[in-house]
Amino acid sequence: MSDHHLFGQVDQYLEDLFIGEDPLLNQVLANSEAAQIPAIQVSPLQGKFLMLMVQITGAKRVLEIGTLTGYSSLWLARALPADGQLITLEFQAKHAALAQQHFDLADLSDRITCHQGPALDTLPSLEGDPPFDLVFIDADKVNYSAYLDWALRLTRPGSVIIADNVVRRGQVLDPARVADEDERIAAQAVRDFNATMATHDQLDAIA
Ligand code: SAH
Ligand code: MG
Question: Which of 89, 114, 150, 159 counts the highest number of beta carbons within 10 A?
Fold first, then answer.
């Protein structure tokens, strides 16, 4: 059995054990597929990890960069208290519109606000608001370092910053060797981001 196949089976085992059936999130995934939106959301195990992070930190204000159709948003928002807020940023109007339907479906619209547009255009509007307790970065990789700058600007000491896709199927080991140009640029951007996370004097980090 290949390692890849084995990891898939282990994930399935852990999903069955720790998550089980989740009709709402299954509906979200079915709607996204029907709308022909790529299934690039976090895995169920990662989603529950995000939920637990909100729960453990007691976060009340959460920022997400990269909504897609709201799968990870719903995991994050589920753990928010009634007066909590998730701000989520999404470039594609089609994604943002379906995400909004999902927030309504989940009855969490009161806690979630989606700003549509390039995140670097919408982030400045959040300056001056109270600091975020937790930030989840999961959008275009080329801007990861810029998103980290914004995350630091919009948080406080003790806030948590989480980023997805920091390995790029191993491409992060040697971006120069990646044949596809977009993938190469993304791998290099993530490698730069990881280096900043690892060495920044305001951050304690792990991947
Ligand atoms: N967090 C989601 C997955 C996000 S996929 C989940 O796990 O469920 C990445 C998303 O980032 C896509 O929907 C893409 O449209 C969006 N995106 C890409 N570039 C962006 C940008 N410049 N600003 C905001 N969102 C962007
Ligand atoms: Mg991702």
Answer: 89
User: Is the CB of 41 inside a 6 Å radius of any atom of ligand 1?
Assistant: yes
Is-contact 119 67, C-beta < 8 A?
no
Give percent above pLDDT 90 in the chain.
97
What tens digit of pLDDT does each residue of 36-51 get?
999 999 999 999 999 9
Compute CA 189 distance to the chain's CA centroid, rounded to the nearest angstrom.
17
In 3D space, the residue among 53, 59, 72, 55 whose CA is nearest the CA of residue 137 turns out to be: 72
Is 92 touching ligand 1 by the criterion CB < 6 Å? yes
How far apart are the CA of 95 and the centre of ligand 1, in A? 9
Mode of pairing for the β-strands spanning 85-90 and 155-163: unpaired
Strand partners of residue 7: none
pLDDT of residue 3: 82
CA dist 155 and 62 (Å) reads: 10
The closest residue, in CA terms, to atom 13 on ligand 1 is 68
Q: What is the pLDDT of residue 1?
A: 65
